[in-house]
Amino acid sequence: MRLFNGCPGFGANTHLLDGKYEVTHVEMFQKIADVNKELHPGHTVIVGDSYDYFQANHDKFDMAWFSPNCQTHTRMVKATRHNVNRIPDMTGLYGLIIFLTHFYSGPWVVENVVPFYKPLIEPTLRVGRHLFWSNKMLFGIEDVPRPKNFINNANIAGADAMKEWLGLDFEGYVYYKGNHCPAQTLRNCVHPKIGKQIIEQLTPGFTARIN
Q: Is 128 among the domain residues?
């Protein structure tokens, strides 16, 4: 099963998938992609623009997952004491959803954080701090309780706690876009258990398990 993972970060959403999935991650930032590749040696990790790559190659994949940058949508934009107000990147999120809806025939999901405004397109599902848009019904997705002080753990100890919570074992810390918080790239992750549940439901031929 060929899965495209766009804007994947460390690829945590695919971390618990079994070998029946051929995963291609396309990540813009080299340092983040390097960790993704270390964590997922059996996956293909490409450094580049995931939007451009998917537009050119979307017919090669059975299903797709995107996690567009959430920094201009998050409620922290308004909650922070710093002056970081920016025009939200509506094209990167909603333009992508429109493209997938009209031009991609496979099952897909787009993930982002709960924003500080009312979503312009109604999401399919909310799980914890995440919203999901999809062309498939998603049901029974169980959340994974977050560690205490999830947002405020902005130090090395907080980053280590996040690694343990996510089950991502790698050395060091990754900073990007001038961010000095070692936990930020980890907070951006979808927990592997949530990712696995959703990807299984996207998989063609999926049938609900009856307990």
A: yes
Low-confidence ranges of the chain (pLDDT < 50): 73, 75, 77, 81, 210-211
Q: Report the CATH number at residue 99.
A: 3.40.50.150
**Three-state secondary-structure class, residue 6:** strand
What pLDDT sits at residue 89? 77
Beta carbons of 104 and 58 less than 8 angstroms apart = yes
Cα-based angle 77, 67, 56 (whole degrees, multiple of 5): 130
Q: Distance (Å, rounded) from C-alpha 149 to C-alpha 124?
A: 28
Euclidean distance between the first and final Cα of the chain, in Å?
25
Q: Identify the domain containing residue 118 by its residue range.
A: 2-143+191-202
> How far is residue 8's CA from residue 186's CA, in Å, rounded to a whole number?
12
Domain count, the chain: 1
pLDDT tens readout for residues 115-166: 888 999 999 999 998 999 999 999 999 999 988 877 777 889 999 999 999 9
Q: Which residue has the tokens 């899965």?
A: 3
- What is the rounded distance in angstroms from the CA atom of residue 178 to the CA atom of residue 62? 36
Enter the DSSP assignment of 115.
Answer: B
Of the CA atoms within 13 Å of residue 66, those in its CB half-sphere come to 28
Contact 4, 22 (CB under 8 A): no
Q: How far apart are CA 68 and CA 196, in angstroms?
A: 18
Query: Length of the chain in residues, anyone?
Result: 211
